[in-house]
Design a protein that fits this description.
With 542 residues, the chain is α/β, with parallel strands linked by helices. The protein is built from 18 helices and 23 strands. The strands form five sheets. A nine-stranded mixed β-sheet has the order 10-9-8-11-12-13-18-23-22, with helices on both faces. It has a seven-stranded mixed β-sheet with strand order 3-4-2-1-5-6-7, covered by helices on one side. A three-stranded parallel β-sheet has the order 15-21-20. Helix 16 runs antiparallel to helix 17 (510-520).
Amino acid sequence: MLTIFMFLGIEGIPRTIGVLQPMVMLIGLATARVLIRYALVDVLHLVHRGRQHRVAIYGAGRAGQQLGLALRHEGHLVLACYFDDDESVVGDRIDGVRICAAHDIGPLIGELAIDEILLALPSVVRSRRAQIVERLNKFPVRVRSLPSIGNIIDGEVSIKDLKDIRVEDLLGRDPVPPDEQLLGQAITGKVVMVSGGGGSIGSELCRQIAARGPSCLVVAEQSEFALYSIMSELEEGANDREDVLIVPELIDVADAAAVRRVMQRHRPQTVFHAAAYKHVPLVERNPISGLRNNIFGTYHCSVEASRVGAERFILVSTDKAVRPTNIMGASKRVCELILQAKADEGKDPTLFSIVRFGNVLSSSGSVVPRFQAQINAGGPVTLTHRDVTRYFMTIPEAAQLVMQAGAMANGGEVFVLDMGQPVRIIDLARSMIQLSGCTVRDDNNLDGDILIEEIGLRPGEKMYEELLIGDNPEPTSHSRIMRAKEERLGWSELLGWLNEMERALDLGDADSAMSVVRAVVPGYSPTDVDEDHVSQMQRKEK
């Protein structure tokens, strides 16, 4: 255009058009883009200002700084300040945002109208994180956290990396690194069977066993869906372990013939017995099914494992077996006595052992997912009693300790896992409500978001759980595993009681079966239940 208009010329058109037209076009394009940017970004930003959240970052280190940069691209989030424990950086600014002292969090939350605190402390130990979270629990803010330093790759920190504080972050107990030699001792290169392989503990056992190179992993499970779920997960990761044969077995461990067929077909060298009905209220209402599955499932699996020459048989037990007040706990205590009696008999080549621990976080039926669902629904959060306490540990930690304890067995031991300090369930509920960004509604805060209601203890439920029947447990080579000293029954005596119980169960006589349980487990002391309801359920079951 410059050549045509300026040098060649067109009649009736001034030559200056060759200079003016590009200038006008450039100004028009630039103006249009500025106006569009203003309309799409600034105007919409003002429209949505009411939905903005003011956040603070706890931790002014490298991870905190990168997280602050990422927040600049999030229109709905405004960074109010940083908090840090290091007094030497207090008062400094990062991109214009000041760093405040951690001990001033309380007043600054109200002064700066902070809605959420983001923990940028990827390398802090769990005990320190628990202390920080416990302090933040006092304030009406939501708390989220970056993952551990091992999960932050190439120094990149994104808003998507943030996650809600998990309940295990509140335990205040740092996990002990597992002893890999112990983990592989009963697994690597061996045929391993996991009964109840689709359950919370069983499925985690399957994951960790498959990763440690058994020659064959037999996953036995009664629930078709649970077996399908864990097999799908294991098969998806099969490319990383092509030399591991994984075999699903859909069986009921209380069926002696089915257990015998599976044991003879695969001849496992190590058996982890995690199959059990564990939900206290359900087993309390269905004693015949609970006793048959838990007690005779353990009996048949242990007998058949011994018959095929298994090297190790490890029973996953529960703290509810200690001075039980419910049928589920009493049945698990009978399971423990079965393995101890077989070990004392001395006729089996199999090393029998028991691993006993408390509640597992986020397992099926756990209070944690139930509380979270109630919080998401706006409450109320229901608990049985405000003074109830429970021991908790994570599923992976429990599975690792089960495998390590099984490898240490010499025969007949009851290994007890160190569960740390018991947790009050009401404190757990309050923490989960506060970490969700809500407040507890009570007499001191009538305008709170979520109400906590007590509904009363359920049949068979205890106020607190115990891990030991006797005193003075022996230490082991593992800092988190103890060896309990407890009374046992002889095999011939116990076998007579089991035969009597089996006859009662075959007749549908729950009363006679429970009388056997009381004789075998002297410490069994059932709590008061609705006798009419129990009788009605027993008649239906018959």
